[in-house]
Specification:
The structure holds three protein chains of three kinds.
Chain A: H1 3-10, E1 24-33, E2 36-42, H2 46-52, E3 59-60, E4 67-68, E5 81-84, E6 87-91, E7 102-105, H3 131-134, H4 143-153, E8 168-173, E9 177-180, H5 184-195, E10 200-203, H6 219-231, E11 235-238, E12 241-247, E13 251-256, E14 264-270, E15 273-276, E16 281-282, E17 295-297, H7 298-308, E18 315-320, H8 323-334, E19 338-344, E20 351-357, E21 360-366, E22 371-373, E23 376-380, E24 383-384, H9 388-392, E25 398-400, E26 405-407, E27 415-417, H10 427-454, E28 494-496, E29 501-502, H11 503-511, H12 517-524, H13 537-548, H14 552-555, H15 569-573, H16 586-591, E30 595-599, E31 602-607, H17 611-620, E32 623-626, E33 631-636, H18 640-647, E34 660-666, E35 672-682, E36 685-690, H19 695-709, E37 716-719, E38 724-730, H20 734-739, E39 742-743, E40 757-762, E41 765-772, E42 780-786, H21 790-800, E43 807-808, H22 811-820, H23 855-863, E44 868-875, E45 887-890, E46 894-905, E47 910-918, E48 927-931, E49 937-942, H24 954-957
Parallel strand pairs in A: 1-7, 8-14, 9-10, 9-15, 10-11, 15-27, 17-23, 18-19, 18-23, 32-43
Antiparallel strand pairs in A: 1-2, 3-4, 5-6, 5-7, 12-13, 13-14, 16-24, 20-21, 21-22, 25-26, 28-29, 30-31, 32-38, 33-36, 33-37, 34-35, 35-36, 38-42, 39-40, 40-41, 41-42, 44-47, 44-49, 45-46, 45-48, 46-47, 48-49
Chain B: E1 18-21, E2 24-27, E3 36-39, E4 44-49, H1 55-60, E5 67-69, E6 75-80, E7 83-88, H2 93-101, E8 110-113, E9 118-124, H3 128-132, E10 150-155, E11 158-164, E12 172-178, H4 182-193, E13 199-201, H5 206-209
Parallel strand pairs in B: 3-13
Antiparallel strand pairs in B: 1-2, 3-9, 4-7, 4-8, 5-6, 6-7, 9-12, 10-11, 11-12
Chain C: E1 3-6, E2 10-13, E3 18-22, H1 34-42, E4 50-56, E5 64-70, E6 76-80, E7 100-102
Chain lengths: 958, 214, 108
Amino acid sequence: MTAQTVQKAVMPMRLDHRPGEVIDRGRELTFTWNGEEYPAYGGDTIISALAACGERIFSRSFKYHRPRGLLTASFLDPGCMVQVDDEPNVRGAHRRVEPGMVVSPQGVWPSLEYDVKSANRAFGRFLSAGFYYKTFIKPRRLWPLYRRMLRRFSAGGRVSAGPAQGYFDKRYAHPDVLVAGGGPAGMAAAVAAGRAGAQVLLVEEEYELGGHLRWGNELDALRVLREEVSRTPGVEVMVNSVVNGRYDDNWVAVMQRDLSHVQERLVKARAKTLVVAPGLIERPYVFEGNDTPGVILSTAARRLINLYAVKPGDRAVVFSANESGDAAAEDLRRSGVEVARVVDARRDGDILRAKGDGKGLRSVECADGAEIECDLLVTAAGWTAPTSLANMAGDRPVYDERAARFFPSILPEDLLATGGIAGDGTLDELLAHARATGQEAARRAVRTALRLRAGIPQRADEQEEPESGSSPVAIPELPISAHPALFRGKTHGIVDYSEDVTSKDLVAAEKEGYDSIELVKRYTTVTMGPTQGKLETVNAVAIMAEATGRTINETGTTVWRPPYSPITLGALAGRNFEPVRYSPMQPWHEIHGAKPLVAGAWIRPDHYGDPASEALNVRENVGIIDVTPLGKFDLRGPDVPKLLDHLYINRWDNLEVGAVRYGVMCLEDGVVFDDGVTGCLGPERYIMTTTSSGAAGVWEWIDHWLQTADPGWRIHVTPVTTAYASINVAGPKSRELLLRLSDGLDLSPEAFPYMRVREGRVAGVEGCFMWRIGFTGELSYEVHVPAAYGLHVWETLMQSGADLGVGPFGVEAQRILRLEKGHFIVGQDTDGLTGPYEVGLGRMVRLDKDDFAGKPELAWQSERDSRLRLVGLQPHDGSLVPPEASQIVENKNEIVGRITSSRMSPTLGRSICLGFVAQHLTTPGTKVTVRLPDGERIPASVTPHHAHYDPEGTRQRG
Amino acid sequence: MVEAAPIARSPIAQAAPTTIKHGWEVSARRSAADLKIIDCTPLAKILVLASPDGEVARALGVPFGRAARDPHGTLVVGSGPGEWLLLATPGTSPAVTQRVDEVQDEGLVSVFDATHGRAIMRITGAKAPDLLAKVCAIDLADEVTPNGAAFRSSVAKLVTDVVRDDSGGSRSYLLHCERSSGQYLFDALIDAGDEFGIEVDGFVDPGKRGVHRV
Amino acid sequence: MILLPCPYCGPRNASEFRYVGEVSERPDPNEAGVDEWRTYLYARNNPAGWTTEMWYHSAGCRQHFVAERHTVTNEVRTSRLPKAPPRGEQEEQATGGNVAVDGGGAIY
């Protein structure tokens, strides 16, 4: 036996060489389908390879589990969704075979050949229109059982529970002209636009440019067009890619799949002009048995024969209403298929029903009573214009009765349509229309580009080339050919193949009162399956029109929304951009086992193993903490005190050089927004610090006042958060440690007292400043050093203080220390309603200032009793730490407060809290009841101060 | 008293082997790849805030949105309305600051040494715009952002200043961001540049190659 | 995603901006009654049509600006720097003069 006869034996339906075939006969591969090995050629799709081997059934339908085969032999084919390895819902008539691929059918149980669920046919009445809403509702207790069964019945593939596979990508593009669709019209438009000087992005869903020319008889024209595309500079081509959506200002989402190193890439294109050239989609005909394997569209027959050299059957009936059907009949004859009859719809021929068995089509019954035995029925009933992208730009398509299809109506200025979506005509007429459209698209793109560029400051030359004074390109009208209006024949059949919705279902839905197409869609789920209406919308509309006695235009169509084509979540997620921020001391933290804490964008050391010991070391010796994330702003200019007075609730016009002060900011609604320390380093020179998480908000708040209130203040604001590495040196031995590192700085309490700032040299680094403040309650210095030297200073502190017992402490130890001292944290101990009076800062509010943010609200707050007050709390059982957000209750379950912060205090050896309580519970010593999340109630008492430790503050002032 | 000579460090981990230049730890690696990324953080960075209509603006000579070198070889970037960033040879901050300070301007003028507050990196190569197009939505075509264009936008979701500063006929972009996100931006650019074969190149003192090749 | 014309940077993707809100005049804090102040804080017209709103170019020049936008079509017809009522002496501005950009009635 020769190799050829071997191939004939295993690929019985494979034809001899076809001039336009896309398969590579020199490249033989094997893959697995349904547990068995199959041969294929390079370039074969999964389905073309299986069809070449004589396979006809590829899936079971969604509801009735009817056997399904080929229908469109394209991406859309509803019966050809398969599982490929771990990947579910692969379009088998689009995806090419790769060596060793493991392909399995979806939604079949127990097997593709014998599916017990097809018994559903017998119970079809239970799965009628709206079955989702009617069936499986009662009795309610059986719902878990129904759910398990329904899941087994659904037709989707299996999603891998493992980690995500593959690398996804994103990129931006700025084409002058983006052409959606790489058929003859799209290619001609792209070439014309490129020749007019435009940067063009030409996007085609299939693997090659060419559209319907690929399976037609005009291969010379195809070759010429392809050559023109490749020769035209400025035309970028993406094949196996799809334009998935058009959004405001021509923001176009393109899904690119033709890349070797990337699974899928989402291209976000800002197109100056969008040319829509999607061609036409062939529409199935609705009649009894129209989903029997062996009933296919004329374009499917032509694709199989001419692209893949696959004989679609042995004996065929062709139902033809147009040239595509006639050409398919011709292709079939040339491939050795016996064409038993051509039923010509233009001469009132019609078919009534297709009859088959479990293996596929057996015969076709014609309207004239003839029943013809055959294994193939090819239908050419008409076309659907995929107006999706025009729809997304606000267009509502209009039905043309003569052509029996919808057309776009009013397109926006930045969108043009060409090709079959715009009209009919000869190839020459189509190309002429497309070329003019491409030229016009390029012309409009120039206009848009000039308008966009006029607003930007980046251009070197101020002189913009004048608009070329171009006038619109005359686009010839495309003729529109008459076509019989064929939607449903004389029998009922499948309308939506993916959702198993029949024409009977639609008529029934109308009888039940769902008389609008949008309601019927949602009630019956017609057009809501994986084909998303591209095959079935117009049929559904026509059947509804027939049922309601309205015209198709009166019935209208459903709205097409993005995405045009299914999209993976991986592609939408793309590469994961999540900016993170690190302090200059991060390498040290990592080496020393810091447990990372994610705080906004910052990665900070939560602790280095034992936060309680870290806290105790601060109380007993000296600790250092990396506080670089503290927001820091350099403020300069004569009017800085006015700004400070405006932002903070307290007074600032008397802050002298060398002093620092604590301040609280409120928003205009009188709610606490941020707090921090601001110091005056010199005349007209200040540093403001904010909370770590509040820095971005404060910066914008400052910008807001300086830019929109426009008070004419002379102030320069510069964020210096990460220009300085910030280290808090805290503990009774902190002065001794710092003395060893700071040359020439007098750190004595007299020369550098509490709440003062000094500048100087630390550990040999110039340009440092430090201030004495006390968040931890100990003697402490917050040292700010130029960031590139942060690691050097930190390491020097650790080395120099070894004999003093210096140790690092993390955020958790700091939280313990500050809670012992009763310092509140904005956002932790305050919420979106907390005013300064409620946290005990009423004395800070200076209502005598002329104006400041939130002043009227604070004035009103001062006149009324605050609802809640922040107090210190200690559980009677000091071993219990009530979780934060535990409620404080009275009587039965009346909520009268909550715990905002709680920790076990290593210093005091007992649990300590801050919390809000109602006014009548604020007296020190008041016993309150804390209800823990598990319902247990424990007693606690209000303490005299927020501070549980050293309430007089003698330690930090030392 | 333990006091080693201070070593300045970039927020970006330096590719081994490393060496000390101008008091900064820098990578000594050399790459001949077509697409390179260089951590330029040791550059002196001076931030100037002044009226866009005043004498300082006139002396700097560069409007918002543009960048150009002054006679001293300092790259003057019009980084914001009334805001300039001056990039110069490492260690020259005092000299550059002084030059700006000497300009008589009636309005409020602030000059900062921002050397420690920013991370700067450069990507050079014909594929540099393709790399940037994966992380930045700004049109990088000559008509929109020609050589000398400066803009601030989102790069890999991070607010970043971008300067197109072609060098030796090659496309080249300087990207600067807040120091703390320097490593993030560097990693994001390397990830985006992987398909183009991007390689890390060590920082070279521009003084030795002439200030015009910062 | 719409393009917003920043008076300084030109048209940029809307994701670079923060929407501050409809422009709302701040009453005199020493005279305003509760109703007037709360109207300033919370009451917005939210028309289906032209509206004047404040945007902040947070990922760009960090400037606030006022845009006239049509909430149905997303057309932006003007965009300018915020012009506040004069308060006290008008001194030199720290951040530059008012730049008007004529959107030309276009959607860009």
